[in-house]
């Protein structure tokens, strides 16, 4: 019996969301936003309101998330497929992709909230290194959104729209 966890887990459909955060640049005091598409996002607790996401420990956005301790999560629909794919690149590619989005700083964290069917603003509650990932636990400070288009999921390595039953 062989163990191919990656191949097996690709058959499990997951939602796709964009996690955004930012940092103030030392020189000039300018803000630099960053974002990454993730499918490892889940609700952990309703009381207190907690969510989790897992990022590879070598992810270049992870140090920023840990340093700022704030982020926003925008849950994507079919209109976000191109964005999710563009956010797989390096920091410059992600910045270009993010600059094409309709977004505004969240009122409680300042992290960009995208025009999406659902969004959350979070602050770092805890984090744990486990395996080759860091699991971030976020306390949810605010939520919102509205459904307009079918949701999108990742399954077998592809982003697919869910049609309504």
Strand content: over 45%
Q: What string, H for helix and E for strand, traces the elements in order?
A: HEEEEEHEHHEEEEEE
Total discrete domains: 1
Q: How far do the termini sit from each other?
A: 37 Å
CATH class: Mainly Beta
Number of β-strand runs: 12
Task: Pick out its properties.
single chain, 165 residues, alpha+beta, Pnp Oxidase, Chain A, 7-stranded antiparallel sheet, 3-stranded antiparallel sheet, 16% helix, globular, Flavin reductase family protein, Split_barrel_FMN-bd, oxidoreductase, NADH-dep_flavin_reductase
Describe the structure.
This is Flavin reductase family protein. With 165 residues, this protein is of the alpha+beta class. The protein has one domain (16-161): Electron Transport, Fmn-binding Protein, Chain A (Pnp Oxidase, Chain A, Roll), CATH 2.30.110.10. The chain is 16% helix and 45% strand. It has helices at 5-9, 62-68, 81-86, 91-99; strands at 14-15, 17-24, 31-38, 41-45, 50-56, 70-75, 103-105, 112-114, 118-130, 133-144, 152-155, 158-161. The chain has a 7-stranded antiparallel sheet with strand order 3-2-6-9-10-5-4. A hairpin with a 4-residue loop joins β4 and β5. The model has no long low-confidence stretch (mean pLDDT 90).
Task: Summarize, please.
With 165 residues, the protein is of the alpha+beta class.
Give the SSE map:
Layout: H1 5-9, E1 14-15, E2 17-24, E3 31-38, E4 41-45, E5 50-56, H2 62-68, E6 70-75, H3 81-86, H4 91-99, E7 103-105, E8 112-114, E9 118-130, E10 133-144, E11 152-155, E12 158-161
Antiparallel strand pairs: 1-11, 2-3, 2-6, 4-5, 5-10, 6-9, 7-8, 9-10, 11-12
Organism: Streptomyces physcomitrii
Keywords: Oxidoreductase
Family: Belongs to the non-flavoprotein flavin reductase family.
């Amino acid at each position: 019996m062989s163990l191919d966890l990656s191949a097996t887990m690709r058959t499990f459909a997951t939602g796709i969301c964009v996690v955004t955060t930012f940092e103030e640049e030392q020189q000039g005091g300018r803000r630099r936003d960053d974002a990454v598409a993730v499918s490892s996002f889940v609700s952990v607790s309703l009381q207190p309101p907690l969510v989790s996401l897992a990022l590879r420990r070598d992810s270049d956005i992870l140090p920023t998330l840990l340093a700022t301790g704030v982020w926003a999560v925008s849950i994507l629909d079919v209109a976000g497929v191109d964005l999710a794919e563009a956010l797989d690149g390096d920091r410059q590619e992600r910045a270009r992709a993010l600059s094409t989005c309709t977004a505004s700083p969240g009122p409680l964290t300042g992290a960009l909230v995208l025009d999406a069917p659902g969004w959350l603003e979070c602050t770092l509650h805890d984090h744990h290194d486990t395996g080759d990932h860091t699991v971030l636990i976020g306390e949810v400070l605010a939520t919102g959104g509205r459904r307009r288009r079918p949701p999108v999921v990742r399954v077998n390595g592809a982003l697919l729209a869910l049609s309504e039953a």
